[in-house]
Amino acid sequence: MIFKHGILATLLAIALPAFAFPASSADNIDVKVGFIRAPHVRETLSILDIPAADDGIAGAGLAVEDNNTTGRFLGQTFAIEDVLLPPGGDPAAALTGLIQHGVSLVLADLPAAELLALSGAAKDKGVLIFNTSAPEDSLREENCRANVFHIAPSYSMLADGLAQYLVWKQWKRWFLIKGSHPEDELYAGALRHAAKKFGAKIVEELTYEDTGGGRRSDSGSVQTQRLIPVATQNAPAYDVLVAADESEVFASYLPFRTWDPRPVAGSAGLRPMSWDGSHEQWGAIQLQNRFMKLASRRMNARDNNAWVAMRMIGEAASRTGSNDPKVISGYLTGPDFAIAAFKGQKQTLRHWNQQLRQPILLGDGRMIVSVSPQEGFLHQTSELDTLGFDEPETKCQLQ
Amino acid sequence: MPIAINCREISRAISLAGSILALNALAFAMVSPAGAFTAYVSNEKGNSISIIDTGKMEVIKTVPAGHRPRGIALSQDGGELFICAGDDDLIQILDTKTLSITGTLPSGADPELLILSPDGKRLYISNENDNLVTAIDVATRKIVAEIPVGVEPEGMELSPDGKVLVNTSETTNMAHLIDIQSRKIFANVLVDARPRAAQYTPDGSELWVSSEVGGTVSVIDAADPKIKQKITFEVPGLSKEAIQPVGIRFTQDGKKAFVALGPANRVAVIDAATKKVEKYLLVGQRVWQLALTPDGKYLYTTNGVSNDVSVIDVASLKVLKSIPVGSFPWGVAIARQ
């Protein structure tokens, strides 16, 4: 709520000088965007990863400021209405409330099942949904929806981005260690698929059972130092340990503790990501600086996805002079759409499933090590389509 | 590029005289001196300025600069080089005779590019972090105006008559046309994603704006500020995403344009009248900024990733040489001396 007022105040402050500049378009428009989010898990292995209260939505807030700076030249204003669901809250009910307030564009930071429920509820209302966090491939494949745009990369895009680099490094023998939760298996599945696709081999696979209990204690490192070497011993010769731990159970314990001295990648060590607080190339430092000024913390992947989603809306509104979701959708899926999002090249939408094409950053949380697609992985239309399921193999039929 | 503006007049006279005297290009080339000018190249990661003797096509000296030097501009007489030291939030003044930093100017946060008024009295700077264009009085070293523009101001240009200041904003995706007298924006032109350089044709009739991410150059009618044409690029074997136009320069007769295509590692040569791309010249890696020698004969390109500068012969459209410079060359300006 406090956040919402903050945005409105900013909006007002920015809107005033707009009168100094004659708008070039005939009609002034207001673009009201909803943000529906579920609380994030606070049980992270590293305290550095505990999400802030404004995780995700702060990125959308920054893009609203950016859109309003542009908007004052065009007579357009942007605002955001935040709905933080209580645990188990119903996204469809939240949507009804937003629609009553005139919202027809919604950013969603929700788990896959809730996202699908939201999409279903929005279908007859002509509302567009922007997925800023759920990475499940099924949402882009068999469960794809015509009213959902995917800003967050899928598991397969992340896994392919990592695989290309590991193969480029000639680290082709992988020891895969995955968690025991369903989403860990989804990520592990994407990693297996990526290994096959790019010529790596999984020489050993192991499941790390989540036996419950707290994530940390005052002397936790003493135990993990003994636990991890044992868990990783007796493996056949391998080049890299690849972890699939979407549930924050063990991956961050792996680096420097494996039985054999090997690098770790995947959910810890070298991680494939759509964004990181350490990314500063291609002008990204400007976005990082603006975000730091606004949120007093570094921008993470969810913040960035929300920024990109809101900028896509801003871009569509400034190009079409409209806030009509039909017009916005038409522009985003049309041939003229491209967004500049500080990753070194234009980002466009895959027309077959409305996934944003994007480079994948590889980093350890302190530095960006590399950016995929890697040199030499070629594609007939866009090298970005070497990441994730491509058009000929898609199961998506948009409706 | 105030030097370029002045040179335009001179060059017009020269080229006119040249065409009257003789059309013998060979004779002209033999008669002309080697053209010993001085090129200054800012090295973004090297925190230095490489100084090139254009006669020898060699670096003759490297002088230290502030942190993250990018945009550079020469004073009218070539005696001073103004350097945007982005990470120091200031403009440094390099005395080009003594090669020492003689002073600094306030700039606002993170200055990236700058342009000097034709009379040398005002310096206009784009401030990436503040969504502002800052005007500085060079004599008093004071900020005299701050003009709010779009998100991430970048390219700066002045119309040949000195009346219009142009700024591009990278995330707003506009060219803002500012009336110098009133310091007010009078037109905003939406262009493709991430606009970088803006450049007037020598006759001032058109304003060309490059869009790095959009991959195009928008040609704007200066009299009625609207896009009248977009130039696109196609290089066989390269994906669309790799074509990222940045620097633009016109030959002094205004007949040809050069556009640096970033990670496509090429400079496009465009017929300024028909807007057709005639040729792609292979240069170093991630080519960004361009500058012509004052005689208009050579084009210098900064190639950020390969740490060098390519020299293009304007008449033959051949790449003559790569000159190794400092780390991540960014801006380039060339003086008569």
Helix-strand category of chain A: alpha/beta
By DSSP, the count of extended strands of chain A is 14
Number of strands of chain B: 28
Order of helices and strands of chain B: HHEEEEEEEEEEEEEEEEEEEEEEEEEEEE
Helicity of chain A, as a percent range? 25-40%
Q: Which regions of chain B contain 5 or more consecutive residues with pLDDT less than 50?
A: 1-33
Beta fraction of chain A: 15-25%
Radius of gyration of chain B equals 18 Å
Structural class of chain B: mainly beta
Strands across the major sheet of chain A, in which order? 2-1-3-4-5
Which ranges of chain A are low-confidence, i.e. pLDDT below 50, for 5 or more consecutive residues?
1-25
What tags apply to this protein structure?
A: 399 residues, alpha/beta, 4-stranded parallel β-sheet, 17% strand, globular, B: 337 residues, mainly beta, disordered N terminus
What does this structure look like?
With 399 residues, chain A is of the alpha/beta class. In chain A, the strands form 4 sheets. A 5-stranded parallel β-sheet of chain A has the order 2-1-3-4-5, with helices on both faces. A 4-stranded parallel β-sheet of chain A has the order 7-6-8-9, with helices on one face. In chain A, strands 10-13-14 form a 3-stranded antiparallel β-sheet, with helices on one face. In chain A, strand 13 and strand 14 form a beta hairpin. In chain A, helix 2 packs parallel to helix 9 and helix 9 packs across helix 10. Chain B is mainly β. Chain B is 8% helix and 50% strand. Chain B has 2 helices and 28 strands. In chain B, strands 3-2-1-28 form a 4-stranded antiparallel β-sheet, with no helix packed on it. A 4-stranded antiparallel β-sheet of chain B has the order 4-5-6-7, with no helix packed on it. At the A-B interface, helix 2, helix 8 and helix 9 of A face strand 15 of B.
